[in-house]
Amino acid sequence: MRLDNQQWTVLFSWVKAHAGIKENEMADRLVKEVATEDIGVLVYDKIPKQTLITEGNEKEITKWQKQWTSCTK
Hints:
By secondary structure, this protein is mostly helical. The protein has helices at residues 22-36, 49-70. The model has no long low-confidence stretch (mean pLDDT 82).
């Protein structure tokens, strides 16, 4: 069931962890169950675009620095 098809509004807000808030404790428990569950099939295996950009930039900067350091002029 998709929430947008049900015309629900979902709001996210920060709450202090392990402060005895019933709903937050339940959410923590459910997340831990799902995270340790062996689902057998990888549902999402995409690398975020920003990660590729960041890693690409770091490699290019390292390459440039090596060239700059080895240059005699």
